[in-house]
Amino acid sequence: MRPKVILFGDSITEMAFKNEGWSSCLANHFCRKVDVVLRGYSGYNTRWALKMVDKVFDGIKLGEAVAVVVFFGANDASLADRSSSFQHVPIPEYKTNLKAIISYIKEKISSTAVIVLITPPPIDEDGRIKNPYGENTTGLPERTNSDAGAYAEACKSVAMENNLPVLDIWSKMQEFPHWEKTFLSDGLHLTGEGNKIVFEELVSKLMEQGISIETLPIDLPHFSDIDPLDPLKSFI
């Protein structure tokens, strides 16, 4: 009955239904208009995501999705010589993987769904040193902001090549003072304010593509449109 908006990404997507999460805000915003389907996988890069993409979308019927949001790159951008090197994916492969995921969505999910790419976020290197994943004895961050920026540029390049909308949160967040602690809880994952900016920018990007609460039909009649003297006729 309702179209679906599917969110496919890593831990920043997996955690997006937590308090003030950008996915929960999206579900509330589109209440009774779409079903927000969360497919977030903590720690995954595009290499792993591509390997299991058919399992991710299993059960999603062809044409059900009105939009698919693809949000990968934060783990791909892990440095090849640091503590999270097992997550690293070189930029050329990252771009190839994104293109393959896009092709899969177009061929298997919907040829008409709006596909929105989101770049990896900026990195607060001090936050990553203080909140490392696993053992990190080097005292160095396993990610750097400049490398995350290179992957953000690669993501934007893929979007441009495929004529897709892209949300550049790497650049957007850095427009604000003190972005490091305002938007990032541990140098990588989002605070409430970080979730808010992703939500607001995504709603704006979807609106540009014609997907909004104004354009989407409501699911079943609004109660004000139901005849109180003969309510059941509204559901025939």
Automatic annotation (TrEMBL):
Keywords: Hydrolase. Signal peptide: none annotated. The keyword Hydrolase applies. It holds the Pfam family Lipase_GDSL. The keyword Hydrolase applies. GO terms for molecular function: hydrolase activity, acting on ester bonds. Gene3D superfamilies: SGNH hydrolase (3.40.50.1110). Belongs to the 'GDSL' lipolytic enzyme family. This is Putative Isoamyl acetate-hydrolyzing esterase. It comes from Zostera marina.
